[in-house]
Design goal:
Blueprint: H1 2-17, H2 19-22, H3 28-31, E1 34-37, E2 50-60, H4 64-74, E3 78-86, H5 96-104, E4 107-116, E5 127-134, E6 138-145, H6 151-155, E7 162-164, E8 167-173, E9 176-182, H7 189-205, E10 211-216, H8 224-233, E11 237-238, E12 257-262, E13 265-271, E14 283-288
């Protein structure tokens, strides 16, 4: 049985690696380019006073129908997705963020982190990355590629070969600034520390605004105190409250997914434990924009 499993894994790895020879080749700029329909729904004149924000690593979006059902039930105003596939074999060649946005009647933008080698069909490149969905128009979307990377780990990975780099997707919507992050899952804490500081450092130079940073931080438990110190120094609060017993992913008893907010009144937040849809759980927070924390 073990030999069969090893053989199957080896054949799968060989299949993926052949993508370096047969598939389309994207540059870094092409991988991280912004795609989407940021204003397919018109803006409303009513002021935004309260927002429900969700962040969720959907593990490629291959369990699409279940993920859609959860997001529809949440009825969020802004959704931050990580590991959102576009045109990958493993997720049925769907454009996952676009199809979710259309089904939920939302605007959307996305940017790739990685081109997934061996996952494409024909000349259509397969990518995975972050997406922002919103009931409101989305403006000034851009990918912030982190300076510190573990790029070689992915290029030589026989099971999951990739081109690209970790990044944050930045945009403005519903009167707030959002950063959708996916930090490195391997390597030293120093890599992830540098990556979140890329976001915090950039935000420090931006005009002060109501801001949310959300996503998958991939942090070990020992990294939580320095993470909290770093975001607190820039005025951010944990939108879900104390994290002592919070579990946000299947494989970790401590939180590795976060929603931080600044200059926003916090009303309530929670983790929704949904099973067999992803290896992460969605985080939801309701934000009060009429009572900003200053």
């Amino acid at each position: 049985m073990i030999r069969v499993a090893v053989l199957a894994t080896s054949m799968f790895a060989l299949f993926r690696l052949t993508g370096y020879l047969a598939g389309p080749v994207l540059t870094g700029d092409q991988i991280h380019a912004i795609a989407g329909e940021p204003a397919r729904l018109a803006a409303t004149d009513a002021p935004v006073s309260r927002l429900t924000v969700v962040t969720w690593n959907i593990e490629q979006g291959s369990r699409f129908d279940g993920i859609l059902a959860v997001l529809r039930d949440q009825d969020a105003d802004v959704i931050l997705l990580q590991e959102a596939d576009r045109f990958c074999r493993r997720s049925g060649y769907r454009d996952v963020p676009r199809e979710l946005a259309h089904a939920l009647d939302m605007n959307w933008v996305s940017a790739g982190e990685f081109q997934e080698i061996g996952e494409s069909r024909g000349n259509v490149p397969a990518t995975t990355g972050q997406a922002i969905l919103s009931k409101y128009p989305i403006e000034h979307a851009e990918a912030i590629v982190f300076v510190r990377q573990s790029a070689m780990r992915w290029r030589i990975n026989p099971v999951q070969p990739r081109r690209g780099a970790r990044m944050a997707l930045h945009a403005q919507t519903a009167g707030i600034t959002v950063y959708n992050v996916h930090l490195e899952s391997s390597g030293a804490d120093a890599v992830r520390d540098a990556q979140i500081k890329d976001v915090l450092g950039r935000d420090a130079w931006a005009p002060r605004s109501s801001t949310v940073i959300g996503g998958d931080f991939n942090n070990p438990a020992r990294a939580i105190p320095p993470l909290m110190a770093a975001v607190s120094a820039h005025g951010f609060l944990d939108a879900l409250g104390p994290a002592d017993s919070r579990q946000t992913s299947i494989r970790h008893r401590h939180p590795i997914d976060w929603l931080f907010a600044r200059d926003i009144g916090l009303t309530r937040g929670r983790v929704q434990r949904v099973e067999r849809l992803s290896d992460h759980f969605p985080l939801t927070a309701t934000l009060d924009l009429s009572h900003e924390e200053r």
